[in-house]
Structures are given as C-alpha cells and as structure tokens.
Specification:
The chain is built from 18 helices and 18 strands. The protein is an alpha+beta fold. It catalyses: a quinone + sn-glycerol 3-phosphate = dihydroxyacetone phosphate + a quinol.
C-alpha cells in the first residue's frame, strides 16, 4: 500500500479502536495481535520501523542464560518466569518466521576445570526448562572438539567447552514483517509519522494529533484507546499526557562491532558467560560477518546513539582475550549502539541487574503504556497488552482470544529452506545472492525479483555484497521505505555490516528512490546530507 493511500485511510476512518504508538517489536506486535482479532487498529512510528532498539539487537532469540543464573542464585521467580516464557516464545518465533530466523549452535569455552560442572549443569537446566520447545540438547565438548568448532579460539589453557543452542534472527526485517502482517490483517500502519498531541474529552484520551515527519502536515485521529509502545521513549510519550509524570524507565547502551567472516565460523557462535565485570559477551556469525557484543552501561536517551570509543575498546579487549587472531580497530567494518528500555528500579546497583521484564501502566486519562521487555517475548507482551486493552476500553473484537501463536509472518507461509536453488535457476542469480534473498524475503523473493526483472535492476547494489538494486524499488513500493537510511540499515543490512560499502551504495540508492518517489534536486541534496550524517554519527 502506498503512503498516499495510508494517509487517506487515516483521515477517512471515523474512529479506531486502538492507536498504537511505536514501530518497534512491541508496537508492531500489539498492532498485529489487535488486528488479527478484528479490531480497528492504527500504528504510527515517528521514524522508521525498528529504527531504534528493535533494529540494534544482538540478533539472538533466547530465553536468557544470564537470567537463569540470576534466578538460581537469587531464588528470583520473576527471572525464572522470564526464561521460561522466553524459551516458549523462542520456539514460536522460529516457527512463525522461518525465513528470518534459524537455530544457532553456541559454544562456551571453559579454562578452569572447576567451572565445567557449573556451566554444564546450568546449560542442561536451560534445556530442561524449554521442555517440548527445545531446539537441541547441550553437551560437554572436549578441548579438541571445542577448537574444531571454533578454530579462532585461544587454545592456551583451554580445558573443555559446552555446546548449546539458541535462535538467531534478522531483527529489523522481523519487525517489518510483523508490521506488514498487521497491515495484511487490516491494520493501518505508517512510519515517519509522529504523535505530537493527545486529545481528551472529560479528562479521558479519545484521540491524537499526528505530524508527518516528511511533509510537516498534521492530522487528527479519533480512537477509543492509545497504546504507548515507544520503547526507550515511552516516558516522552507519557509526558504528552502528564508533563509532571515520574519516569518508568532507565536505559542502558548495547554496543556491537562487526568484523569480517574470518573472526567467526559460519555455523557456530561463542558465548562468554562472564567478563571481568560480570557481563555476557557473544561472538556470533551473522550474515557472512562476525558480530561481537554487547556492552551494558547506563546511557542517556538519544534517537541515534553513537558507540563510545570506551565501549568499542571494551569489546575489542575481551574479544582479544579469547582469540588467537589479533584484532585491530582497523578490522572493524561497522558499529552500532542500541538503547535498552529497562523498568526502573532505584535499588539496582547497575543496569545489568535489571530484569528485561515488561509492565503495563495506565494513566488517569487512560494512556496505556507497555514498558520494558525484550525481543524474544514481543508476542507475549503484545498478547498481554491487547488482552488488557480489550478489558480496560470495553472493546468487542470480532474474534475472541489471541491469534498470533501460530500465525505465520509475511514471507513465511510458503517458505522452504532450499538455499534459493529455484531462484538461481529462474533468475540467473549466483548462489550467495539467491540464498540471501531466500532468507530475508522468504516466499516474497520471487515477487521482488519479478520487479527487478521488469525494471532492469537485477544488478548488485555494491560489489562484494549480495544486495540488489531491485531491493530499493521493492522497498519503496511494498515496504514503506521513505529514506535512504531506511534501505541501508533496515530493508537491507548493508550499513550494519559494512559502513564503507553503505557510503558507496548511497548515490545509486538515492537515484533509484528519487525516480520512484519523484524527488527534486533539493530533496536529493537534503537526503544525501542526512544519510552521510547518519552514517558518520550513528546509524
């Protein structure tokens, strides 16, 4: 659906049951859950879908090994429940988005014999908690087998390893798939549209004022209820309702660095269970590269946080201590920082001590805020929120009960993991490109390639990467991409794996988008400047 059609729909709909504010995992999940029950739903996102926290994760679908350790050590039932829910939701996400997610083998290296039973027992318990939703069994590895699976690992002093399994996914495209599936179910979704005011009658919210971030135009929308799913920015939205309200959240930064593929095998990741300051560190294969993260430090609120040199040094220092390969700052191909929304707890010593749990809070005027949580449990968070909203706002959905537990996301229904073999034959692609398109677009890949064939854009976007020019046109026509950075960082992941290549691709993306969207020379210059600034300062 084109943006003009969506704007018209927003203006013509007399009233929505729910307005969802925020286009990350939480907001898109709420919109999908509500729309699949037959409610009239609108979702607005100030920037792009998954532009914030939801597009800057460690790319893991997990129950949370660290949370399980805390649950045991502190007899903390909340942490235990978080792990149990996460493992169940991990299975559902792998089932419902088969093209965007996969099982990943991880190895934990052990350099002290005394740690072997502790680590192995913990990961075995992790298996047991997953029950029928398990995706593979943990087992103890010999020193030789550990090095075979992860040859880059430092051999000196290595005693053994433990193998276990979690899920991996493409976070930005996952959020987009959830949003587009919500649209498929009848929701009105739009990005680059900010909530700038709440309308009240007799002290209760019954509408909102929206501002188009691309044109500056404003419009009004009537609704029965508003769901605040703004991620780290929920308190900003709450202040539109109550300027004096106390904050619900604190934030921490999660910084990641990307290296080339020689720093991680293609099918195995490394989990370091405890760094010098008690953090968990991952070294993972991701889209033909090595992803290392993450930090966990208190951070100030920013739409596009920039990784600090101290955080990058922290990751490099710890990676070097586990690698036989020397890693230099010049090996870094890309970096990014994401803010984690953590439910505030004044007694917590640091941000790592805060549970990644979610809460629902309702203001006296009826603003429902969904705060906290983590990617893996987005669906359950959405279910809890919609169940609550139906009761609170006395809504009458056409379909009773949550529908999303077994609802395939767009691209997954007819997807088969064939490595893109059919695409190679039908469209004369190389295997790397076909495999990439198969994984990212699923059963929509052939539609994208037909667009490319009809527009003569089945050419590489930039040398050394699998991305095609056709993806730009497809993203504009079918995926609501409105800015160059939308394509560089989220419709594709080029900016997330290779900043230099992203700069090289920018002029061609700009040319293709200008032709599709009718940009004049002034708009092209503005967009080029904005893109360069984002690539320099924070994706």
């Amino acid at each position: 659906m084109k943006r003009e059609e969506i704007l018209s729909r927003l203006q013509q709909q007399s009233r929505y049951d729910l307005l969802v504010v925020g286009g990350g995992a939480s907001g898109c999940g709420v919109a999908l859950d509500a729309a699949s029950r037959g409610l009239k739903v609108a979702l607005v996102e100030k920037n792009d879908f998954a532009e914030g926290t939801s597009g800057r994760s460690t790319k893991l679908i997990h129950g949370g090994v660290r949370y399980l350790e805390k649950a045991i050590k502190r007899l903390d039932r909340r942490q235990y429940n978080l792990v149990r829910d996460g493992l169940r939701e991990r299975a559902l996400l792998l089932q419902n988005a088969r093209h965007l997610s996969n099982r990943l083998t991880l190895v934990t290296p052990i350099y002290n014999w005394l740690e072997v039973p502790y680590v192995f027992a913990g990961l075995k318990l992790y298996d047991l908690l997953s029950g029928k939703h398990h995706i593979g069994h943990s087992r103890l590895l010999s020193r030789t087998e550990t090095l075979r699976r992860f040859p880059m690992l430092k051999a000196h002093g290595l005693k053994a390893g433990v193998r276990y399994h979690d899920g991996q996914f493409h976070d930005a495209r996952m959020a987009l798939a959830i949003a587009l599936t919500a649209q498929q179910q009848g929701a009105t979704i739009i990005n680059h549209m900010a909530l700038t005011g709440l309308v009240k009658s007799a002290g209760a919210i019954n509408g909102a004022t929206l501002t188009d971030q691309l044109t500056g135009d404003t419009l009004s929308l009537n609704c029965t209820g508003v769901i605040n799913a703004g991620g780290p920015f929920v308190d900003d939205i709450r202040r539109l309702d109550d300027p004096q309200g106390s904050p619900l959240l604190t934030t921490s930064s999660g910084v990641h660095i990307v290296l080339d593929q020689r720093f991680a095998p293609p099918d195995t990741g490394l989990m370091i269970p405890e760094t010098e300051d008690g953090r968990v560190l991952f070294i993972l294969p991701w889209e033909g590269h090595a992803l290392i993260g993450t930090t966990d430090e208190p951070a100030t609120l920013s739409e596009h946080p920039r990784p600090l040199d101290t955080e990058i040094d922290y990751l490099l220092r710890h990676a070097r201590s586990y690698f036989d390969l020397q890693i230099e700052p010049s090996d870094i191909k890309a970096t990014w920082s994401g803010l984690r929304p953590l439910v505030a707890n004044p007694t917590a010593v640091d941000t790592a001590a805060l549970a990644r749990d979610h809460i629902l809070q309702t203001s006296p005027s009826g603003l429902v805020t969904l705060a906290g949580g983590k990617w893996t449990t987005y669906r359950k968070m959405a279910q809890d929120t919609v169940d609550y909203a139906i009761n609170y706002f006395s809504l009458d959905p056409a379909i009773k009960g949550c529908q999303t537990a077994h609802l395939p996301l767009i691209g997954s229904s007819d997807f088969e993991l064939l490595g893109g073999t059919e695409l190679v034959e039908r469209f004369a692609l190389n295997e790397a490109t076909a495999s990439y398109l198969n994984r990212c677009y699923g059963d929509q890949a052939d539609q994208l390639l037909e667009v490319g064939r009809s527009t003569d854009t089945l050419r590489p976007l930039v040398a050394g990467h699998p991305f095609l020019e056709a993806e730009v046109i497809y993203a504009v026509r079918f995926e609501l991409a409105q800015r160059v950075i939308d394509i560089l960082a989220r419709r594709t992941h080029l900016a997330m794996v290779d900043t230099r290549a992203a700069r090289q691709a920018t002029p061609r993306i700009l040319e293709l988008m200008a032709a599709e969207l009718g940009w004049d020379l002034k708009r092209c210059d503005e967009e080029a400047e904005r893109t360069n600034r984002r690539l320099n300062e924070g994706i």
